[in-house]
Amino acid sequence: MRAAAPVQKDGPRVNEDIRVREVQLIDHEGTNRGVTPTQDAITLAREAGLDLVEISPNTSPPICKILDYGKFKYQAQKKAAEARKKQKTVEVKEIKLRPGIDKHDYQVKMRSMRRFFEEGDKVKVTLRFRGREMAHQELGYKLLQRVREDMANLAKVEAEPMSEGRQIVMILAPR
After folding, report:
1. Average of pLDDT values for 41-65?
2. For an engineered disulfide with 65, which of 19, 26, 162, 174 has Cβ 3.0 to 4.6 Å away?
3. Which residues pair with 37 in a beta bridge?
4. Which residue has the higher pLDDT, 89 or 123?
5. CA-to-CA distance for 136 and 129, rounded, in angstroms?
6. What are the two backbone dihedrals, phi and then psi, of residue 166, each rounded to the nearest 5 degrees?
């Protein structure tokens, strides 16, 4: 029977979890103490009433810092939340057209496309054919070419128009 594998916790190793002989130590004031035996570093941290936290584990020897681990974790959490708040997810909006679209309907679709590009979203233009319209696919490609030209200053073509059964699809991304 084998012993159970140690439970991996997320985040940096702290105090007794640091299992190397010596570490590069930075004390609580930010001064570099040089290479120090791990037990001495833990003792110094305890005397300061703080924790020994492994900051850079992939170096040789690992870099450890004496600091308040609870505060360190809280700061990291706040930083991650701030990064998530500033992040903008790019959505793909869909505009559906037909080959025989009227002038005004076309303008309405272009207005909403413009709004999507200003919000930073991508637009998937789907041109659907019904019945005998399939015989005149060149009209569909002309319409998509017109969309491309009308949106040239706002968007670039990410996926060229391609036929998928009874529809032609083109994807535009904001510039």
Report:
1. 90
2. 26
3. 22
4. 123
5. 9
6. -90, 15
The four Cα atoms 64, 70, 71, 77 give a dihedral, to 10 degrees, of 100
- The residue among 46, 47, 51 whose CA lies nearest residue 64 is 51
AA identity, residue 43 = T
pLDDT digits over 69-111, tens only? Answer: 999 999 999 999 998 888 777 789 999 999 999 999 999 999 9
Tell me how far CA of residue 53 lies from CA of 25, 36, 39, 58, 65, in angstroms: 10, 14, 13, 14, 5
Q: Are strands 122-128 and 92-97 parallel, antiparallel or unpaired?
A: parallel
Q: Which residue has the tokens 């120090």?
A: 36
Cα dihedral 39, 43, 46, 50, rounded to 10, equals -60
Q: Which two tokens stand for residue 175?
A: 């510039």
Least Cα distance to 32 among 56, 68, 16, 15 occurs for 56
Cβ contacts of residue 173 below 8 Å, gap of 6+?
122, 155, 156, 158
Tokens 């979890």 identify what position? 17
Tokens (6 digits) for 30: 């930010």
